[in-house]
Amino acid sequence: MKKLLQQHEFVVTIVFFLVVILIGAINPAFFSIGNIFSLLKSMIIRGILALGVLIVIISGNVDISFTAISAFAMYTTSKIMLALFPEGGLLLAFAIGGLIGLLLGSINASFVAGMKLPALIVSLGTSSAIRGFMLAFIGVKIINNLPASLIAYSRSYIAKFTDASGKIVTLPSAIIMLIAVTIIVWFILRYTMLGRGVYALGGDPVSTERAGFNIKAIQYFIYCFMGFLSGIAGVLHSVFMRNANPFDIVGTELIVIASVVLGGASITGGKGTVYGTLLGVAFTVLIENSLIIIGVPSYWQKVVIGLIIVVSTAASALREKFAKLEIS
Amino acid sequence: MAADRSILQLLLIAIVVFIIMALLNPGKFLTLLNIESMAYQFPELGIISLGMMIAMLSGGIDLSIVSIANMASILMGLILTKMMPQNAANNQIVLFVAFALLISLLTGLISGLINGFLIAHVGIPAILATLGTSQILTGIAIVITKGYAVPGFPEIFLKIGNSKLFIFPIPFLVFLACAIVLFFLLQKSSFGIRLYLIGTNIKASVFSGIKVKSILMKSYALTGVLASIAGIVMTARTNSAKADYGSSYVLQAVLVAVLGGVNPAGGFGSVIGLSIAVLSLQFLSSGFNMLRFSNFATEFTWGMFLLLIMGINYFQNKRIKSSK
Amino acid sequence: MEQVFLAVENIDKSFAGVHALNDVSLKIKKGEIHCLAGENGSGKSTLIKVIAGVEKPDSGQIIIDNKKYHHLHPIDAIHEGIQVIYQDFSLFPNLTVAENLALNSQLEMRKKLVSWKQVKETAEKALQLINVDLDLNRLVENLPVADKQLVAISRALMQDAKLVIMDEPTTALTQKEVERLFKIIKSMQEKGISTLFVSHKLREVLDISERLTILRNGQKVIEGNVEEFDETKITYYMTGRNVSSNKFISEKKSGDEKPILSVTNLSSDGFFDDINFDLYKGEVLGITGLLGSGRTELALALFGYSPADKGEIHINGQKIHIKSIQDAMRNGIAYVPEDRLNEGLFMKQSISRNIYVGILDSIKKALGLINVSEADSIAASLIKDLNINADDPLRPVQTLSGGNQQRVVLARWLSTKAKLIILNGPTVGVDIGSKTDILEKLKELAKEGLGIMIISDDIPELVQTCSRILVMHKGKIIRTLEGDEIEEKAISNILNNLD
């Protein structure tokens, strides 16, 4: 039991379900399928981004440029699709978006891996450069006439229910993308040497090099993969919104990072799990979307999220302090 | 010395940017009017960056600076637009303004102390602690204002942001005062020397008898006070207080600090370097503005600027290593 | 058997203008235990890194098993069977024992995927090789130091090592653990595995090695069979001069004078228990004992880092309460930590700043302002007093050698007018030349009336410097040695026969 309580994920799980029960007790409508579907939908994009951020954080770095990459990929993909392949399919859109993201991610990679600079500072530079470039040279107008394939995808679903009031509620097919990314990231981190290399790098970079890991290759993977996921998430965002607004997405980077940290990833690197990250995402989404349901005005949102960040990080900081006392 | 070299290099960059902008905007950039308007504009980011530098010198970061600034502004707004009677006499207004300024500074101080407590005593990494407090502060500000701006500040107050003393705009003088005080505090006081040492090696600081927790508390309190001063200048210039004003300043301030030679890992950086960096960026954005470039082009250039400087430093260091 | 496994030929390597290795060659035969000796900064570590492929030599070649390499990558070295156990063990603190043991083998097999079953099997096999038992699921960051080293050794052996290089493997080990390590090395030899043992502890060099190569200032000065050497000879080759070592006779005043430090019934739960001793003017007091004997904790308690729970401390006859480092400093107690790099110095800051940090409060003027040039001149006079070899006190302290760095820490505390200086491992990582200078300086300071307390497991150092030695074990003082009792054999006998 004591061991379990030392596990951050376990504690967050308990708290999460307590909060769920509490919200449900205040307003049973919380448990309606419609509400649960809408929570799940809100988790998709944040979840995909958070899983990329998880890998960056485990490796001992922080990237804040992923939202700029995501917005850039979204907007540019829409432009390219409309100009070159107005009849193009969904897969093509995701491929273009993913590729753009990957290329932009490789810029981060070349600074972090090639010049051994801290990713936080590098990504500060790339995020202004990427966003500035898009808004200055590609465009600022919202694109409303997205290709038909994207609009069609926005309507597709994998589950459909008619709720008590007769309203039809659906779970978008895009949830499959989150599931797929989850499985891929989980597999990479748990079952590939690349993934173990990410953990090793976050634990002790010098030992990682001595053990014979190719650190540059690992870092190229990390930032290119982060870019790729950002691109995918960007295109998905335009699908959900049914438009491409270049001003979207940027500004959410800190809440995504907060979700990952809430899920137990250590900001100093070496620790973090896929399960914890999804839990963290679920938690922040839950808070953002459920305050109204329990009668708290939505402008309390930020306060509650801030409190959660402070309390959860304080708890893990204090727990580490006591654990150290026990060892020595 | 390495520090002097990088300051010289920065100064050179600032001068080059200045000359290029003057050449690209003949008869417009090199005018008293433009220089004056730049002197009104840069202090907001300048003061915020000074605060960010303090946090970064200790090896931390403060993501809550702008939230603190806005919180301070909004409390001032409540005092000066809601509490103060509409028909208040002049001397009464002066009293209220003084009271509002005091509350603003106190807000900064207390918020900074909370950050310091979470970081030094509880042991939360600075980036997370201040991320949390920034959300809480912005959240409370939204709760208080329901997200609306608080406009309508009294004339006397607005003078802080929009008038001159002799030929110097007051925001500029405020920045100058902050910079001078910080210069002495960092270079010539025991607090400053200890702050640099903590940023260099926190364990060695403990073993050499530095009261690390107390210095960290003080440093975040100082950052908080600087944030509230920035808040005062922002509010007085724009005649309004808003919960999410200037949120892009946070990352810009980190950018300015890094450009100015502050080491993100802590222990190194100077007021002079930072001041030159913030001026170069102001030249850049004013010049671009005159060329009718969008703000976004400026944002793009800032980012490229940072990457470029990091690249130059990297290759310079590499050359020094191999040439010796 | 006379086959050469590794030949390093004419290696040159420079860093930022410093010629770290100058035309160095080294041969290691199959199954040989070879010792690489040299002072700190002699190029030992660089040479190891070159052999491991971590540093690329500027010129020269490496021949492993008759294969020539101009540029060896870490992974090539591993494939050739070269394993390095670095001083810091190169483990991953955030991973389990099992994964730490298996990760390198998996990498070496160029695996892309991880089989956790195989990880567990590999780990079990690895521990069997040296016959120890550890909890495979524990995170390495939670292990004690000796266990971490066991993990590092068994990991190295696991990968079909043909040559194991051990960088200062005994620094963190107790005498008993060192013996176990030597047994393991001998058993490796029986299997035909060569060992390159890197050390600056002369006794061990003579005990374990067959051949010896000595480096000085990046150059090889001599190599030969170990029988040809004795301690004085090795010291001579390492330092280039003869270093005399003479015992320290205390000029302790008897009877009426109050001790500088008097400790009675001092206890700290779980660390040390009922400690009693006095330290008089003119004495150098040594404390030794195995790792975990409570010696470091006792020092940290006196310095207020982790205050004691019970007992009394008197300074010059006055009872004092130490609840924090500031309390200790106010009462004139200073502490020089063992880990100079992480706890002692601000490596990137100036030499001057590293010295005057101790006296900021006493030179503070109005508004907390410091007259920096005054502070610099105080530092400069201490630099002169202590013979610190620094042309420019404003250069970062990391540009100094280990011995000079240690003197900077000492200078810091001397500037505070401390009454008692506790030094933990005062010459760890300091080369022999400076070591003698530092120890002589300590004796001199003791004669001038400063209380000196040395915590160390370097027995010759203790014998050379201390006038009285306390031996700690399991948190208690079990022996006090004085005068003629202070003798190397006697102390190692006590330490070897602890339960």
Concise structural overview:
The complex is a heterotrimer of chains A (about 325), B (about 325) and C (about 500). Chain A is mainly alpha-helical and about 325 residues long. Chain A has one domain (about 10-20, about 35-325): ABC transporter involved in vitamin B12 uptake, BtuC, CATH 1.10.3470.
Q: Could you describe the 3D structure shown?
A:
The complex is a heterotrimer of chains A (328), B (324) and C (499). Chain A has 14 helices and 2 strands; from the N terminus they run H-H-H-H-H-H-H-E-E-H-H-H-H-H-H-H. Chain A has 328 residues and is mostly helical. Chain A has one domain (9-21, 35-327): ABC transporter involved in vitamin B12 uptake, BtuC. In chain A, helix 3 (33-58) runs parallel beside helix 8, helix 4 packs antiparallel against helix 5 and helix 5 (90-115) packs across helix 6 (119-138). The mean pLDDT of chain A is 89. Chain B is mainly α and 324 residues long. Helices cover 78% and strands 2% of the residues of chain B. In chain B, the strands form 2 sheets. Chain B has a two-stranded antiparallel sheet with strand order 1-4. A two-stranded antiparallel sheet of chain B has the order 2-3. Chain C folds into 2 domains: 4-239, P-loop containing nucleotide triphosphate hydrolases (Rossmann fold), CATH 3.40.50; 261-496, 3-Layer(aba) Sandwich (Rossmann fold), CATH 3.40.50. Helices cover 34% and strands 25% of the residues of chain C. Chain C has 17 helices and 20 strands. Chains in contact: A-B, A-C, B-C. Chains A and B meet through helix 6, helix 12 and helix 14 of A and helix 5, helix 11 and helix 13 of B.
